[in-house]
Design a protein that fits this description.
single chain; alpha+beta; 2 domains; 3-stranded antiparallel sheet
Length: 155
């Protein structure tokens, strides 16, 4: 499930080709970080995943409940902040930390909704799979495989 291949040729700087099934996107770093700005940077891709999942999850709910919503727009921002600057963080979240990875997510919904429906949409957004994954402290298992350089066979 969700097989993704990420390829980077070192001679091309930070330009990275990402493939999932038949879909391809380019990632890169901005020029200010040594890239050529040919695609989104890694944190922009992370935010894009959260934003897309949020919008899609809300659309599924809106469709199922037949709510009068005509558009959903999600604005996201990532920054590293000091624990004391995190107003929404619980004491447990900031205990012993020198830095918080802070994501701001603002969801714009166009439509006529009751206060109860608005609250429900906010709850549903918090249940999108990518949001849940980010909050779950996922385990990432790594393997490093060294491939020898291509060479011609000697006869």
């Amino acid at each position: 499930m969700n097989d993704v291949k990420v390829s980077l040729k070192t001679a091309e700087g930070f330009r990275t080709v990402i493939t999932a099934g038949q879909n391809t996107i380019i990632a890169d770093e901005p020029e200010s970080h040594g890239g050529h700005d040919e695609g989104m940077a890694p944190y922009e891709l992370l935010l894009s995943s959260l934003g897309a999942c949020t919008a899609m999850t809300l659309k599924m709910y809106v469709d199922r409940k037949k709510l009068p919503v005509t558009s959903i727009e999600v604005h996201l921002n990532f920054e590293k902040i000091k624990p004391e600057d995190c107003e929404g963080c619980s004491p447990e979240e900031i205990a012993g930390r020198t830095e918080i990875h802070y994501i701001s997510r603002i969801i714009y919904v166009e439509g006529q909704l009751t206060t109860e429906q608005e609250e429900r949409l906010k709850y549903v957004a918090s249940r999108c799979p990518v949001h849940l994954t980010l909050h779950s402290n996922p385990h990432v298992e790594d393997a490093l495989i060294i491939r020898p350089l291509s060479s011609t066979l000697l006869l």
